[in-house]
Amino acid sequence: MTTRFDRPGDDEYAPFYATYVSKVPAGDLIALLTNQISEVMTLLRPVSEQRANGAYAPGKWTLKEVVGHIADTERVMSYRAMVFARADQGPLPKFDENAWIVPAHFNDRTLGSLIDEWVAARSSSIALLAGLPADAPARRGIASSKEVSVRALAHIIYGHVAHHAGIIRERYL
After folding, report:
1. 8 A C-beta contact, residue 89 and residue 146
2. How far apart are CA 150 and CA 68, in angstroms?
3. Dihedrals φ, ψ of 98, to 5°?
4. Distance from first CA to last CA of the chain, Å, rounded?
5. Which of 49, 51, 16 lies closest to 159 in space, CA to CA?
6. CA-based radius of gyration for the chain
7. Complete domains list, the chain, with CATH
8. Is there a contact between 43 and 168 (Cβ–Cβ < 8 Å)?
């Protein structure tokens, strides 16, 4: 079963997510999501634990916290996509990523374990999205008090990782 994930219209997501959606290149979104795994692994696997424990500026997240945040966000957006794809329109609660960092204790873990966790979450997202019926990507629901489509959430998943990969390249490595 092949599900198409055309680029969402501006009315399918909150303006906040436009940065992420704009980072998605043209092409088969499932293939892009799959290929992004090796891109992220190539970026992160060579990083030492010492470097991963560092932040690029005082008060900023460490690289481990960024990777943990990427995994958390992957799960949240994928869950939202699943809920709305199943025709449950929500509303779903907001996601306060800053509030989740401290209790997660990402810095107590190895960078490798955090990468592996994200890969598992991404693999799950791909399986979910690839198995959706043809009409599911257009379905919408309410999350964080804003309407969003399944198609937009799929793009946000890719674009969020692309966004943070750029920050990692520019500020952490």
Report:
1. no
2. 23
3. -65, -35
4. 40
5. 16
6. 16
7. 10-172 (1.20.120.450)
8. yes
pLDDT of amino acid 2: 58
Q: What one-character DSSP code corresponds to residue 163?
A: H
Express each pLDDT in 128-171 by its tens digit.
Answer: 999 999 999 999 999 999 999 999 999 999 999 999 999 999 99
Q: How confident is the model at residue 1 (pLDDT cuts 50, 70, 90)?
A: low
Is the pTM value of this prediction over 0.85?
yes
- Given a cut of 80, whether residue 21 has pLDDT beyond it is yes
Residue 90: CB atoms within 10 Å: 16
Q: What is the DSSP string of 87-145?
A: T----B----HHHHHHHHTGGGS-HHHHHHHHHHHHHHHHHHHHTS-TTGGG-EEEETT
* CA angle (35 as vertex; 120, 33 as ends), nearest 5: 65
> Looking at residue 57, what DSSP letter applies?
S
Share of the chain above pLDDT 70, in %: 98
Q: What's phi and psi for 53, nearest 5 deg?
A: -85, -5
What gap in Å lies between CA 6 and CA 131, rounded to an integer? 16
